[in-house]
Design brief:
Layout lengths: L6 H10 L8 H17 L5 H11 L1 H9 L3 H11 L11 H13 L30 H4 L21
């Protein structure tokens, strides 16, 4: 039976003694940031959990993590934690990131208005399906004449 080490204990040890792991410091930072973002993006993670992560990491570190979110990720988090905010769907990315930090810091979500919905793009009309039996090739009739050009004309034999 394969035994596995406790990953959190390993991360804690790397964090407590970074001098012992100089070659993996950058990778450990990238992995830790990715884990925090994955936790924030989890569908079942409530706003109270985000506030707890904010309290654990502190304002500066949490802001740095949120600053690395893509626009799509930030827009999805604001839509989930503050769905009634009128600017949630149209605001620029820097506003979205600030709103996530503010919500995590204790700001109340907007309680007025209707949850904002993104305008749906009109659906494109579907191209008609071309069936083989209805194509012009199946409807062609032979008129008794050969319409192909003669095979020998136009080509010269190469001397070799």
């Amino acid at each position: 039976m394969l035994l596995d080490a406790d990953g959190l204990a390993l991360l804690r040890a790397i964090g407590q003694m970074p001098g012992a792991f100089p070659d993996i410091r950058d990778e450990a930072s990238r992995i830790a940031r990715a884990l925090v973002i994955r936790q924030l993006k989890a569908k079942s993670f409530p706003l109270s959990g985000v506030r707890q992560v904010y309290d654990i990491l502190g304002h500066a570190t949490f802001t740095l993590v949120v600053d690395g979110l893509t626009e799509i990720e930030a827009r999805a988090l604001v839509a989930r934690f503050d769905p009634r905010h009128p600017d949630g769907k149209t605001a620029p990315v820097h506003w979205l990131r600030r709103q996530i930090v503010a919500l995590a810091g204790g700001a109340a979500p907007c309680s007025q208005g209707v949850p904002a919905r993104a305008p749906r793009a009109p659906s494109r009309p579907k191209a008609p399906v071309l069936r083989a039996l209805g194509s012009s090739a199946f409807g062609a009739r032979w008129d008794g004449r050969d319409h192909d050009p003669p095979a020998g004309k136009g080509k010269r034999k190469a001397k070799g």
